[in-house]
Amino acid sequence: MRWFLLVVLMMMGAVSAASAQVGYDPANSPYHDILHGRYLELTAGRILGSGGTIPVGPRDGTAFGARVDFRAKNTIQISFGGWYANTVRNIVDADDSVATRVKPAIPHHLYAGEIALQFNLTGGKTWHDVAPFVGVGLGAVRGQKTPPADTSGYVFGTKLFFAPFVGGRLMLGQRAFLKLEAKAYFWSLKYPVSYTEEPSKQPGTGDVINAVNVSGRRSQYVPVPALNLGFGYAF
Question: Where are the beta strands (DSSP E) in 8-101?
Fold first, then answer.
């Protein structure tokens, strides 16, 4: 997550610089008004992560999305949109031996709708044409059906999620911008009962537990980091 912290520090620096706006000659000021408040935005990015402590969650894929941005006030912005991601996940066979139960990764497609609340840290202005922001998204994501090869009963299904983000826009004049955004999706993975049972091919003995889910917890919130690039155009 070092890249996420780096983006946060960059945004903090931009906000600190924004506090020095008073006293600039308007003709030479590094601050410029953002005149438009509605943008159509297209995004492409990369979803990362580990898939959880039991690696059946989606990870490592390319994502594409579209959304509409509405700036309600200089600082507050609301967005509505959706995205698709071509990720992968592992199949974990609960009955197999410990060494071979995690199978190779298979494709796992995700489809999501999302609403986002964004706070523009320099208000309705840019600083050297850069407009930093933070915010949070709320939405629902659906995964493709479980393949027949997964006999353990795990299903990703449909999840609600929240997703804090931080980033910045580089304004290309008044009608267009480029965006860099670091984001982390948080959704819950629910594990089947079979993960808590001893595998038939290598059952545990005595104090040795060979079940997939040693903790016995049936659900776990998993952070899924992502890095996105976007292009927006005013309408």
Answer: 31-33, 38-47, 59-71, 76-92
Q: What is the pTM of this model?
A: 0.85
157: left (phi > 0), else alpha (psi -120 to 50), else beta?
Answer: left
Helix, strand, coil % in the chain, rounded to nearest 5: 10, 55, 35
Instruction: Return phi, psi of residue 196, to 5°.
Output: -95, -5
Tokens of residue 102, six digits: 């995690």
Cα–Cα distance measured from residue 201 to residue 97, given in angstroms and rounded to the nearest whole number:
5
- The model's pLDDT over 15-63, given as tens digits with 9 standing for 90+, comes to 444 444 455 556 668 888 998 989 999 999 999 999 999 999 999 999 9
Nearest residue to 38 via CA among 66, 69, 6, 74: 69
Task: Please check whether residue 163 is in contact with residue 136, taking contact to mean a CB–CB distance below 8 angstroms.
Answer: yes
Inter-residue contact 167 to 230 (CB < 8 Å): no
**Distance of alpha carbon 112 from alpha carbon 18, whole angstroms:** 35
C-beta atoms surrounding 192 within 10 Å: 18
